[in-house]
Design brief:
Helix content: 25-40%
Number of domains: 1
Distance between the termini: 26 Å
Bound molecules: zinc ion
Shape: elongated
Radius of gyration: 13 Å
Strand content: 5-15%
Largest sheet: 2 strands, antiparallel
Number of strands: 2
Order of helices and strands: EEHH
Protein name: Zinc ribbon domain-containing protein
Number of helices: 2
Strand order of the largest sheet: 1-2
């Protein structure tokens, strides 16, 4: 089983892959409509928003948390 390199989500079904392409290392949530991977800034923005909404976090704290989590993932390690 593969894990998304950009968000860490386990990809267990073909529907988890962008455009059903199982050769990809990232999931559909981390892909653009054309199947290419989203950028670090795009993932950071969407994750920040999710934390603010689901945990009622302050914007700066949510952004920092999102940053720390994303930096642990293979796709963003060297950024
Ligand atoms: Zn992902």
């Amino acid at each position: 089983m593969k894990m998304c390199i950009a968000c860490g989500m386990p990809m267990t079904q073909i529907a988890d892959y962008p455009l059903y392409d199982i050769s990809k290392n990232y999931c559909k949530h981390c892909a653009n409509k054309d199947g290419t991977m989203k950028t670090f800034d795009e993932k950071l923005a969407s994750l920040t928003l999710r934390y603010m909404q689901s945990h009622d976090m302050d914007c700066a704290i949510a952004k920092h948390t999102a940053y720390v989590i994303l930096k642990k993932l293979p796709a963003w390690k060297q950024k």
